[in-house]
Amino acid sequence: MTATTPLRALALVCTLKPGSADSSTDLIAHQVLAELDGHGVVGSVVRVVDHDVKPGVEVDMGDGDQWPAIRAQLLDADILVLATPTWVGQHSSVAQRVFERLDAEISETGEDGNPHTFGKVAVIAVVGNEDGAHHISGIAAQVLGDTGFTVPAQGVTYWNGEAMHPTDFKDLDETPEGTASTTKVAAANAAHLARLLRDAKYPPSS
After folding, report:
1. Beta bridge partners of 90
2. Of 104, 139, 164, 180, which has the fewest Cβ atoms less than 10 A away?
3. Which residues form the NADPH-dependent FMN reductase-like domain (predicted)?
4. What is the pLDDT of residues 7-17, one digit of tens each?
C-alpha cells in the first residue's frame, strides 16, 4: 500500500432489520460513507444481521460462522464505521455481538506484537427516537479502543428524536444541520487520522 492508494472504509450496520428493509441505522452509515467519499475514501457496507455471526470471542467459531469473512473485509479497511440503533437506551444486540467478536483481536498480533487493528480508525454512528447516544458511544469507544482501533477527535455522529415519539431518522424530510455537520467533521477527522496512521504506524510492542 502506498500514500496514493485510496483509503477504504467498512460500515458494519448493526440494525435489527434484515435484508433491504428501510433502516435509520443504514441511512446514517451511508451518510458517513458519503462524507468519507469526499475525502477519497472508498466505502462498503455489511448489514451484520444478514450474516450468521456466531456468539463467542474467537476469530472463527466454526459451524458455518460468517464472522471470518466479515473480519477479512475489516482487516482490509482503514476505517471502521460502527453504526447502531438505540433500543431501551442501549446499543443493539447485533452491535453487542460485534463487540464480543472484536475481543479476539486483542490476541491476534503481527510480528511487531501489535494487534492487526492497530492503525485502523473507527467512527461511531448512533440513531434512535430516545436518549442514549452518549451512553452508547462511550461504550463503543471503550470497546473499539481496547480492541486496537483509534477514534478521532469528535469521531461520533448521532441523532436522537423525541422520547416515546414514532418518528425515526429515516422518516425526516431532511437531516438536521446539527447531525449533518457532526457527520461531516467525524468523516473529515477519520480520513485525516487514517492517512496519518498509514504513513506513521504505532511503535511495536515487542
Report:
1. 87
2. 164
3. 10-153
4. 999 999 999 99
